[in-house]
Amino acid sequence: MHVWNGLTEVPSDLGRSVVTLGNFDGVHRGHRAVLGQLVEQASTREATSVAVTFDPHPLAVLFPERAPTPLTSLPQRLSLLAGTGLDAVLVMEFTTDFARLTPEEFVEQVFVDALHACAVIVGEDTRFGWRNSGNVETLRELGKTHDFDVIVLADLGDGERWSSTMARAQLAEGDVEAAAVVLGRPHRVCGTVVHGDHRGRAMGYPTANLGPDVEGLVPADGVYAGWLVRHDLPEQTVDRVLPCAVSIGTNPTFDGHDRRVEGYVLDRTDLDLYGERVCYELIKRLRPTLKYEGVEPLVQQMRADVAQCRDILSTIVPS
Q1: Cβ atoms within 10 A of the Cβ of 215, count?
Q2: Residue 169 falls inside a structural domain
Q3: I want to staple 282 with a disulfide (CB 3.0 to 4.6 A). Which of 99, 183, 226, 274 is the partner?
Q4: pLDDT for the residue 231
């Protein structure tokens, strides 16, 4: 999949394309339905399939106090988009100047002049251009003027529309199982493994702590069953995906203040992951973070958590 950072990187000899646009945060099941149609239409029309996305999120520029915490970083988003079969993604830097483009200017500069769109696929609630003044009807009128078809897809969901907002709310409650239904996959939190306080090793449960460069929305504090994924290792490598118990919180038993994401790989004390970039794939929340009166009650609880994780993960095939 090609990634074009701005209009200047779009090839001048690009033929006709089928295009969609959106933030695509999380690349959830609703997004993938649109992208699936995009790829299919592009194949039928012998055109290039292109998704136009924005970075940063428009609200982060226009109304920072209202901006949502992203479900995924831009690299994560691009990786997920690549998995849909797209030919290319055009990443548009969202600025105040860009926000001032009228719907007509946006369509002409992006869809017509740069991408030579023969079709545009959007959801029913698509808005674009200055103050979101452009909608589906605007797009249809512009399609007539500039010779591209407009295909509008109905919202999808199990009783409620799948959305990034829904997934964020579920993760804020720690309900990673419900979020996985919306996302169509387990939620991932990724980062580089750094040294922590080494208390886990002293208690027999060494953990891999993620540093401050965490990518992916960190869900509610608690203990989770999940998988540690080592993307630097080749596919099918034995230790690439490992079962683990993941702790998110401030370590209240030790009066901690910094919120951390750390995981213990079940029954393994031989791993050296320092400096390695890994992801925690979260499957189920076991319990909230609690403060214990001393180390021994904490170790007993950790033993129970590990046993529960082992039972849960023994019936699941990692994605």
Answers
A1: 19
A2: no
A3: 226
A4: 87
Burial track 51-83 (b if 16+ CB lie within 10 A, e otherwise): bbbbbebbeebeeeeeeeebbbbbebbbebbee
Q: Tokens 């403060």 belong to which residue?
A: 291
| Residue 207: CA count within 13 A, CB half-sphere | 22
Q: Is the dihedral of CA 167, 171, 174, 177 positive or negative?
A: positive
Q: Which pLDDT tens digit goes with each residue over 188-200?
A: 999 999 987 767 6
Does an H or E element contain 296, and which? helix 295-313
Statement: residue 214 has pLDDT above 80: yes
* Residues 262, 210 contacting (CB under 8 angstroms): yes
Domain that holds residue 82: 2-153
β-strands 241-249, 260-265 pairing: antiparallel
* pTM (2 d.p.): 0.90
Task: Work out how many domains the chain is built from and give that number.
Answer: 2
Are 289 and 247 in contact, with CB atoms under 8 Å apart? Answer: yes
121 and 6 within one domain: yes
**Segment 6-46, tens digit of pLDDT:** 999 999 999 999 999 999 999 999 999 999 999 999 999 99
Answer yes or no: is 163 within a domain. Answer: no
